[in-house]
């Protein structure tokens, strides 16, 4: 059996690689090899999705603290790796709990054992809390945890599943008699390609009703000759947001029969039509706001850009330097659903053309280093933004 193991980006979003492996032992060895390099990774097999949680140096040198709460119990589970030793503390929240120490032949094996333990607990519903990270910041009068938002990294496989799947590239669902959407700028219907399709009924439960119903589709014109790439937003927060105009983002209800028009011919810098990468599932991660989003959340959107408040926020969260705040509470890079925009050049948040309210992120597209997804953006990072009240209002902001 050939098992495809995909390493997906972790919080830092820096690593992506797909490997074809024959058995679990081979997968474990590869995983060990990556741990030796201290690469922060998650492992997911697309045959049978199993995710080992991100291992980072920070996580291994401090500790991983998990909690589980339901109507019956409130438990904690803490894992510390000290060289070849794995120390586990567990028990009822509020008690000291019990301690268990195991020794392994090598540091790597200790790390692997620790990450498997963590994985087991996460599968049982434990969640990693920021207790330890939060404790790092002393003398704080603001708690960063109130700004945590979930985001979801896509778990993918190459190839097309169905017209209704969530996917990058490939064939979109099109209504009966509908042809491929044409470019609003150059009208070259032949070159509009599907970048992303989200089936809103297949999103994580927390957001199944958040963005609307049906499908969200984003097409972009990839024609080399296409003009009119960006236009300034009428209303924007932070720096002036430039909206990419040769895109189509829409929400549609797949109620009729689907159309299967021939694939468009693509005449552009790309060699070919983007092949599909299907999104099979989602992995939840904790997301933290970029600094200017934090200012907006604490003091209001009209205060974004207020330099005095910038220092104040860092101080109130218990840090001396902005970089430390960013290191400990990063905005998730790479592709993700929801969460906070990882602005490449500072906040460029457009307002809704109808109500002028700042638009929020539905999806962040950043394909860099992602070997299984077509190279759509080069170095850049794109944000599909939507008005929370006017769910048919979408924009695409891109920066690098
Ligand atoms: Zn065009
Ligand atoms: Zn609106």
Written overview of the protein:
The chain has 400 residues and is of the alpha+beta class. The protein folds into three domains: 52 residues, no CATH class; 75 residues, WGR domain (q64v53_bacfr protein fold, Single Sheet), CATH 2.20.140.10; 263 residues, YwqG-like (Hypothetical protein YwqG fold, Roll). 17% of the residues lie in helices and 32% in strands. It has a ten-stranded antiparallel beta sheet, with no helix packed on it. Strands 7-6-5-4-8 form a five-stranded antiparallel beta sheet. Strand 5 and strand 6 form a beta hairpin. The longest helix is centred in the first third of the chain and has 17 residues. The chain is globular and about 65 Å long. The protein starts with a strand and ends with a strand. The relative contact order is 0.14. About 9% of the residues have low confidence. Bound molecules: zinc ion (2 copies). One zinc ion binds next to loops.
At a glance:
The protein is of the alpha+beta class and 400 residues long. It is 17% helix and 32% strand.
Number of strands: 24
Outline: globular
Number of domain modules:
3
Strand content: 25-35%
Could you tell me the CATH topology label of the largest domain.
Hypothetical protein YwqG fold
Distance between the termini: 41 Å
Would you state the CATH class of the largest domain?
A: Mainly Beta
CATH superfamily of the largest domain: YwqG-like
Bound ligands, named by name, code or SMILES: zinc ion
Strand order of the largest sheet: 17-13-12-10-19-9-20-22-23-24
Provide the gyration radius in Å.
22 Å
- CATH-level-2 architecture of the largest domain: Roll
């Amino acid at each position: 059996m050939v098992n495809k193991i995909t390493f997906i980006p972790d919080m830092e979003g820096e690593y992506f690689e797909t490997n074809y492996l024959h058995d679990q032992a081979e997968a474990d060895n590869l995983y060990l090899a990556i741990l030796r390099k201290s690469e922060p990774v998650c492992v997911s097999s697309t045959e049978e999705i199993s995710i080992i949680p991100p291992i980072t140096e920070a996580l291994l040198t401090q500790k991983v603290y998990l909690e589980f709460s339901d109507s019956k119990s409130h438990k904690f589970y803490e894992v510390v790796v000290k060289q070849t030793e794995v120390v586990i503390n567990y028990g009822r929240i509020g008690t000291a709990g019990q301690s268990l120490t195991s020794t392994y032949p090598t540091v790597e094996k200790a790390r692997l054992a620790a990450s498997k333990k963590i994985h087991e607990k996460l599968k049982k519903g434990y969640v990693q809390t920021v207790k330890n990270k939060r404790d790092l910041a002393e003398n704080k009068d603001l708690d960063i945890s109130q700004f945590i938002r979930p985001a979801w990294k896509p778990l993918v496989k190459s190839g097309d599943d169905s017209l209704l799947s969530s996917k990058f590239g490939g064939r979109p669902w099109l209504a009966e008699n509908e042809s491929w959407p044409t470019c609003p700028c150059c009208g070259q219907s032949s070159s509009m390609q599907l970048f992303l399709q989200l089936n809103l009924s297949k999103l994580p439960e927390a957001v199944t009703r958040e963005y609307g119903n049906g499908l969200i589709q984003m097409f972009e014109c990839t024609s080399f000759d296409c003009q009119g790439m960006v236009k300034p937003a009428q209303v924007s927060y932070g720096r002036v947001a430039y909206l990419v105009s040769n895109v189509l983002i829409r929400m549609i209800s797949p109620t009729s029969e689907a159309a299967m028009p021939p694939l468009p011919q693509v005449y552009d810098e790309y060699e070919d039509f983007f092949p599909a990468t299907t999104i099979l599932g989602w992995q939840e991660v904790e997301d933290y706001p970029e600094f200017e989003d934090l200012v907006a959340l604490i003091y209001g959107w009209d205060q974004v850009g207020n330099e005095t408040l910038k220092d104040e926020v860092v101080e109130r969260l218990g840090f001396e330097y902005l970089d430390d705040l960013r290191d400990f509470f990063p905005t998730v890079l790479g592709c993700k659903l929801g969460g906070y925009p990882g602005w490449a050049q500072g906040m460029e948040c457009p307002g809704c053309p109808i109500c002028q309210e700042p638009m929020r992120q539905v999806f962040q597209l950043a394909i860099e280093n992602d070997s299984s997804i077509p190279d759509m953006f080069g170095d850049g990072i794109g944000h599909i933004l939507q008005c929370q009240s006017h769910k048919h209002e979408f924009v695409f902001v891109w920066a690098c």
